Amino acid sequence: MNEKKLSASMMCADLAHLKRTLEIFEENKIDYLHIDVMDGVFVPNLGLGVDYIRSLREVTSIPLDLHLMIREPEYKLSWFGIQKEDIVTLHYESTEQIQRAIDLLKKYDCKCFVAINPGTPIYSIEEVIEDIDGINVLMVNPGFAGQKMVPSTMKKMEKMGAYLQELGKQDIEIEVDGNITVEKAKILSGYGADIFVAGTSSLFIGNTDQYAANIAALRNVL
């Protein structure tokens, strides 16, 4: 069984209190900082960019969980200063050459994940399953924070867990991303989810004084 991990969604962080937020995350051993990179083309929004990522690396040693919601990510990998401890997630739907994108990413020796949108079947990743370290099951349509979970994705996550067991691929980590409340995290953990992207539905509730308790509440159900 894979270790359960938390990835803090930095799109939800209050920039006015970013320094204190990162101190709390380090004190409470947050596993990853989830960085939503959006180009306004693959998704209808602009997200955290190259300069933000570079600055973040200068002030914390927490590994990054780079979620590339951008068109043709394989040609832009050099922009992000990818490190070995990072997760980098490519969207299955973002390129016509997902295998080429994976091959190019593997040169960085980081963890390689593939994300699938709510409407993308779980079996889409079958042909690349031997070449990836994890799968990000999107529980919302990507692009905006604060969305409600697409109801069918709970069943989809259950199917994904069973599918990887059927293939004997339980070592592949499953990340869940989008409207992950404490209650839903408990259910998703039982379905086999390993990494939980925590945003406005669980971690970033209240002010920074409450973040440690929010982290503890999540860990308590995983």
Report on the architecture of this protein.
It is a single chain. This protein has 6 helices and 8 strands. Strands 1-2-3-4-5-6-7-8 form an 8-stranded parallel barrel, surrounded by 4 helices. The chain has one domain: Alpha-Beta Barrel (TIM Barrel). Strand 6, helix 4 and strand 7 form a beta-alpha-beta unit. It is globular. The longest helix is centred in the last third of the chain and has 16 residues. With 222 residues, the protein is of the alpha/beta class.
What is this entry, summarized?
With 222 residues, the chain is of the alpha/beta class. It contains 6 helices and 8 strands, in the order E-H-E-H-E-E-H-E-E-H-E-H-E-H.
Question: Topology, pairings included?
Answer:
Elements: E1 5-9, H1 18-27, E2 32-38, H2 50-59, E3 64-69, E4 87-91, H3 98-106, E5 111-116, E6 134-138, H4 152-167, E7 173-177, H5 182-191, E8 195-198, H6 211-221
Task: Give the tags.
single chain; alpha/beta; TIM Barrel; 6 helices
Characterize the biggest β-sheet. Answer: 8 strands, parallel, barrel
How many separate domains?
1
Please identify the oligomeric state.
Answer: single chain
- CATH architectural name: Alpha-Beta Barrel
* Secondary-structure element pattern, one letter each: EHEHEEHEEHEHEH
Per DSSP, the total helix count is 6
CATH class: Alpha Beta
Strand order, sheet with most strands:
1-2-3-4-5-6-7-8
- Write down the overall geometry: globular
Give the % helix: 25-40%
Q: Structural class from helices and strands?
A: alpha/beta
Which superfamily, in CATH terms, is the homologous superfamily? Aldolase class I
